[in-house]
Amino acid sequence: MKKVTSFILAGGKSSRMGMDKGFCKIGQEEFIPRIAKCLTPFSQEVVLVSGLEAYDVFGLKRIEDIYPGKGPIAGIQAALEYTSTENNIIMSCDIPFISPTLIQRLVDETQEQDVIHLATRHETMPLAALYKKSCRTYFKSRLEKDELKLRDALKGLQVKNIQVAEEEERFLSNINTPQELKKINHDR
Fold first, then answer.
1. Rounded to whole angstroms, how far apart are CA atoms 63 and 103?
2. Does CATH number 3.90.550.10 belong to domain 4-187?
3. CB within 8 A of 155, min separation 6: which ones?
4. What span, in angstroms and rounded, lies between the C-alpha atoms of 80 and 186?
5. Fewest beta carbons within 10 Å, which of 70, 92, 138, 149?
6. 149-154 long-range Cβ contacts below 8 angstroms, 24+ apart
7. At residue 178, does pLDDT exceed 70?
8. How far, CA to CA in Å, does 131 sit from each of 40, 56, 115, 158, 184?
9. CA–CA separation, 118 vs 125, rounded Å?
């Protein structure tokens, strides 16, 4: 198995949710520990990227953005500066249904590319992806130029999509609003 470090990005403002997404629950389990549990079997270490000290309750190593307030690209750059492994999983904290099967597919991929991310029929998932450590200088230069759109940044890298099956797309659902959270807990 490749040496992999996993990072959960939890630095967003959660404005649509109205609370910090990492504390949202499916049943009795918060999103962050749920995602960490999924990542742990594949990782040397699972690290939280967030400036929110309240997340320390989860017992994960927590690092902060080097360029605060600059969005997901800053979280990825901070993760890649911190890591000692070439291969790094970057996972958003609002994808609580991520499955070990999909993580395994990221880790198993022979990676000639800079980034390998999961993709549904409708969208790519750059925050459910494997990034090479060597991308850190590229992301740093984007941040220094205030070029903050992650999808635009990916156009300058070698990227591979791993298409998930239609029945697996539910594992990549983002939960962004109280209504979505209520629905998933009601449907359980």
1. 22
2. yes
3. none
4. 37
5. 149
6. 149/73, 150/71, 150/72, 150/73, 150/76, 150/126, 151/124, 151/126, 153/73, 154/115, 154/126
7. no
8. 17, 25, 5, 10, 30
9. 5
Whole-number Å distance between alpha carbons of 71 and 64: 12
User: How many Å apart are CA 24 and CA 117, to the nearest integer?
Assistant: 25
- pLDDT confidence band for 166 (50 / 70 / 90): very high
Helix (H, G, I), strand (E, B) or coil at 143: helix
Please write the tens of the pLDDT for every residue from 3-20. Answer: 999 999 997 655 555 567
Mutual angle of helices 136-144 and 72-82, in 10-degree steps: 140
Whole-prediction pTM: 0.93
Please name the residues in contact with 124: beta carbons below 8 A apart, sequence gap of 6 or more: 117, 118, 151, 161
SS3 121: coil
SS3 call for 163:
strand
**Residues for the chain: how many in total?**
188
